[in-house]
Design brief:
single chain; globular; transmembrane helix; membrane; mainly alpha
């Protein structure tokens, strides 16, 4: 049962990587601007790094989903490595430049500890899921895990966006325009 939960979380993370990568491919300039705002990598690398990150997100996410579908767990390794890299990067970013945007899903919200925890959670889930590759071998188990993975992906995507619900909107001093 624990491996099924870990597998659902791992596949949910893979779906998020895939979705984020597609978004970053479509808006590479936005990701490059986020990298510039973060000031963590050299200026000359913003555009090429944005393109590389987007392609690797898509490849790692698609590979992990394919690995789950075919029970070929080594295909999930790049997703775990990608989330480990995100975990390290966002930890350093949160400590050194806490107010800067994280760039997750084309958003402009500041990097938070929940983003850091999410990256490490997905990284660990892949490792646990790969330790018992036959945990969801039955068709019904695979369907349940697949549905749970979609739910995990949606919750992980929506949770940071819902963090500000109910708080007053800041206008940045512009006031209302009538």
């Amino acid at each position: 049962m624990h491996q099924q939960i870990a597998t659902a979380i791992a596949v949910g993370g893979a779906l998020l990587l895939l979705a984020a990568g597609v978004g970053h491919l479509r808006r590479r300039a936005h990701l490059a601007a986020v990298l510039a705002a973060q000031r963590m990598v050299p200026r000359w690398s913003h555009r090429p790094l944005a393109a590389v990150v987007a392609v690797v997100e898509v490849a790692a996410g698609a590979g992990a989903v394919a690995g789950w579908l075919t029970a070929s767990w080594p295909l999930m390794t790049p997703a775990s490595a990608m989330y480990a890299a995100f975990g390290v990067y966002t930890t350093v970013l949160r400590i050194r430049r806490p107010g800067t945007p994280c760039g997750c899903f084309d958003g402009d919200s500041a990097v938070s500890w929940s983003v850091v925890v999410r990256a490490w959670m997905f990284c660990g889930a892949v490792i646990v899921a790969a330790s018992a590759p036959d945990a969801d071998a039955a068709v019904t188990d695979r369907m349940v895990v697949g549905c749970a993975a979609i739910l995990v992906a949606l919750i992980s995507w929506l949770a940071p966006q819902l963090a500000g619900v109910g708080r007053p909107v800041r206008t940045g001093g512009a006031g209302s325009r009538r």
